[in-house]
Task: inverse folding
């Protein structure tokens, strides 16, 4: 009996790696990585390909040149990505400033709309995303409210019974790392750095949250950091 089909929005990052791993045994997954000229594009593609090879998943890269052109995010412009200290990770005002710096216009809305189109075209039942509670504090398109709203949009806007699944939506990064360890997710294959250096920079907010998560979980961090 063939497995039901799924789409995974897979940047190659820690969160989407764990989220995709949760469904890897039960679904025939097609993973999508988006190119919006982000600094980390090459490393994201490498990581996503490694994860796809691990699970024998089809990997599709979708180019979004127009999103690169309209964005002034530090993720895909000449602006420097902010550096943060560990103490600042829990400073909501500082985190909000950083979030606005790396914000790409309506990114998750664009990604999920395209993923929905792809899901309809192959008769997939679910779309897998790595949204989590910790990032939802400052990124509104990672929140449970956003998830519920988008699923309601699909209910009204699609003939098909498709649902976005965000299994990490109530977890912080430490809990995600623990979950990944429990299910043997290939977290060592994932890549999280905003700057796109071969080894993680260790200074951007994404690196800092990744590093802290492994430390707080009491697990060996397989990541190579420059700093």
Result:
């Amino acid at each position: 009996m063939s497995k039901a089909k799924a789409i995974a929005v897979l940047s190659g990052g820690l969160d989407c790696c764990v989220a995709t791993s949760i469904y890897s045994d039960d679904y025939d997954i097609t993973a999508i990585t988006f190119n919006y000229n982000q600094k980390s594009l090459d490393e994201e593609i490498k990581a996503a390909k490694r994860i796809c090879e691990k699970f024998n998943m089809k990997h599709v890269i979708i180019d979004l040149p127009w999103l690169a052109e309209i964005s002034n995010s530090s993720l895909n412009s000449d602006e420097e990505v902010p550096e943060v200290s560990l103490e600042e990770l829990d400073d909501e005002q500082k985190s909000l400033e950083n979030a606005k710096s790396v914000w790409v216009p309506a990114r998750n809305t664009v990604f999920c709309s395209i993923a929905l189109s792809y899901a309809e075209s192959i008769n997939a039942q679910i779309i897998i995303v790595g949204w989590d509670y910790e990032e939802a504090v400052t990124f509104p398109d990672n929140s449970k409210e956003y998830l519920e709203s988008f699923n309601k949009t699909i209910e009204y806007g699609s003939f098909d019974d498709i649902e976005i699944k965000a299994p990490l939506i109530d977890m912080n990064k430490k809990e995600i790392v623990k979950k990944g360890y429990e299910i043997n997710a290939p977290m060592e294959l994932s890549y999280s750095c905003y700057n796109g250096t071969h080894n993680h920079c260790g200074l951007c907010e994404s690196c800092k949250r990744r590093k802290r998560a492994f430390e707080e979980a009491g697990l060996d961090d397989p990541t190579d950091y420059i700093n």
